[in-house]
Design brief:
Length: about 475
């Protein structure tokens, strides 16, 4: 018996109640006695569900305003569907972000708070909900965090190791050979544009690129950014190959969702609660339902994907989870505005990055609470400058900071952060001007601080943070690297 089958059997026979924290929807007695009848009762119009996940992709493609990347397939997907301008993950690190998607619960409730951590076994997972609706549920590539896929209860999964190049090709091969008549929910995870990036720029011209805000302009930085875009183009090809197969094999009654687990592995992106870390490209295509070339400003979170898929599959959005369905906007309900506020959390990635923070974001304001401002913020980028591709340029930032005041301010903002940050996103979308100490915004600060505190209490967000924090800045060029 395959691991996915074993995991599914285990979830079907164990208690699904997480000590009062989770209120999952169990299969009805009739559905368990007669699954075929349950599938039939859901009706023949249930769409196939295709979820394609990028790895470490920020809003660095044309539909979201970045003209650097060559990504024609993603542009085509946006032209055929709906672009979400304000979609956010629950946490800006791989494991907690993906666990939130696959459970509909925020990190403190599902147990995957630190990177590398998996959700608790007693928490019900997305495949179980879709199984109740008669779906075959499969995963290829990086869908959960590396080699955690078996615990989620997929019917079948393949190639979930680090940067396994066969992840997307295996999904295409499997689709072409499939003859099952059940509706299908297929999750496809690319490893691009996660580091290591391609060794060459693959046609991108470093000097011609427009660099992101808060980026010192050095030659090695431009080269790194060009190789990041080369990785984005590789992702785009995988998206195109997958969509071609999906259209041929599954046909028009297919819902497609594309998104990314968090922002790019770039300073102020991944591992951060700035929008560059938590706001992610999200595009939906659903022929006959979603207006081609449309956009929505509805604020949605990755925890909302689970109840949305259940809703589209003919089920009732589960009670007791943190997610809420955004299916109304997909069905053309212009009154649907999404969430009034977005909450995000981050704890640590081992001991390389130990910097717990919490955030609440409204349509206009962003409030970040850095729980331990006495810590020095560090990541693989500045700690592993010899071993991690995205960090090889960081010493050039530190060198530039010696003589360039703007570079110095950027490097200091990377390493050292105050206890509270407040940004007016309407006037300062790049989150450069912290207004927390400005008395003119004391009322806004107080309100957002109270809302975040109340939410944390409701979530039970009181667990200790793992890892050993850093109290000094990262290594200079030539220093020994961590083991």
């Amino acid at each position: 018996m395959k691991p996915g089958h074993i995991a599914r059997l285990a979830f079907a026979t164990t208690s699904l109640v997480a000590l009062g924290q989770v209120a999952p929807v169990a299969r009805s007695k009739a559905a368990m006695q007669n699954p075929a009848a349950a599938r039939e009762s859901a009706g023949p119009a249930r769409p196939n569900l295709v979820i394609f996940l990028a790895d470490d992709l920020g809003n660095d493609i044309q539909p979201f305003g970045d003209s650097n990347a060559r990504a024609p397939n993603l542009a085509r997907l946006a032209a055929d569907g709906m672009t979400f301008d304000r979609a956010f993950v629950a946490s800006p690190a791989c494991a907690p972000s993906r666990a939130a998607l696959l459970t509909g619960l925020m990190p403190a409730r599902n147990g995957a708070e630190a990177n590398q951590k998996a959700p608790r076994a007693d928490v019900r997972k997305l495949p179980a909900y879709l199984h109740d609706l008669g779906y075959e549920v499969v995963a290829f590539g990086k869908v959960s965090h590396y080699q955690q896929t078996a615990m989620y209860g997929f019917d079948h999964f393949e190639h979930d190791k680090f940067h396994d190049p066969e992840g997307v090709p295996s999904a295409i091969k499997w689709l072409k050979a499939r003859n099952d008549k059940r509706p299908l929910a297929i999750f496809v995870g690319s490893n691009w544009p996660h580091v290591p990036w391609p060794e060459t720029t693959e046609g991108y011209q470093p000097a011609a690129l427009r660099l992101p805000p808060k980026t010192p302009d050095t030659p090695i930085t431009r080269d790194a950014r060009a190789r990041y875009y080369a990785a984005v183009s590789r992702l785009d090809k995988e998206v195109g190959d997958t969509l071609d197969t999906v259209d041929t094999v599954l046909g028009p009654n297919t819902f497609v969702l594309f998104s990314s687990d968090h922002g790019a592995q770039w300073p102020f992106g991944k591992w951060n609660l700035y929008d560059t870390g938590t706001r992610v490209p999200t595009i939906v295509r659903w022929q006959g339902h979603v207006q081609p070339g449309s956009r929505t400003g509805a604020m949605v979170s990755w925890v909302d994907i689970l109840p949305t898929l259940v809703d589209l599959g003919g089920g009732k959005a589960p009670a007791g989870i943190d997610g809420t369905s955004f299916a109304p906007v997909l069905r053309g309900d212009t009154r649907f505005k999404g969430r009034g506020e977005i909450y995000t959390t981050h704890n640590n990635d081992g001991s390389i990055n130990v910097y717990p923070m919490r955030s609440v974001r409204t349509g206009r304001w962003k409030y970040i609470h850095n729980l331990h401002p006495e810590y020095t913020y560090t990541t693989h980028i500045d700690q592993w400058v010899k071993r991690v591709d995205s960090g090889k340029y960081f010493p050039s930032w530190r060198e530039a900071a010696k003589t360039d005041p703007a570079a110095r301010a950027t490097v200091q903002a990377y390493y050292h952060r105050p206890g509270e940050e407040l940004y007016d996103l309407a006037a300062d979308p790049d989150e450069k001007r912290n207004l927390a100490a400005d008395p003119r915004y004391a009322g806004v600060l107080k309100s957002l601080r109270a809302r975040l505190a109340a939410w944390r209490k409701q979530q039970g967000d009181t667990h200790p943070v793992e890892g050993v924090p850093h109290l000094r800045e990262g290594p200079l060029t030539g220093e020994a690297q961590p083991d």
